[in-house]
Fold:
Amino acid sequence: MPSPEAEAAASELQDRATLWNVGEIPASDVVSAACDALVAGLDSPGLRVLAACTRAEADYDVHDLLPGALDELGLILYPAAGEAGQEAAARALARRMLAGGLKPWELTFRINQLYGHELPLTARLAELDDEYGFLEFGGDQAVAQIDAEVTVEARRLAAVHPRVPAEPADVPPMHTDRPASSH
Structure:
């Protein structure tokens, strides 16, 4: 059974991969999450290569390296355009808000900009974004009430976490030579 640190690192890696895939964060954030995953005890050949990318290489190499690294860990890189990918991105944004990385209005704004009212899973967040827009001068109490509703929705979305392998895979020692990039 993986440690709580490994579970958290896998969740963060999955979230960052998803957010990168929809254009919300830079590739270097995915590489940072790969490094954090190694430190937390997750390990695979692909994860090692991904974590070894420099910031300059990240923009070019993450696209090719990430799917394999996630697959080795039993994680999924959802297609950005499909409903599963959209839902994964919404869940990742919700977890980011709950961790303090976004304000409630920022979460609703991003969800509304990305998916509008079309994604059933996030329709309530899109409605709450509209409510923020109607406030204009509604005062702090009205904002606090909407913030509380956004937090409830974010908790609902954040309830699903990525899978983490139960047993660490046998991982051969890392070679010092990186394979040549295909770019």
Remarks:
- The radius of gyration is 18 Å.
- Residues 38 and 89 are 23 Å apart (CA to CA).
- The chain has two domains: 4-72, 83-157.
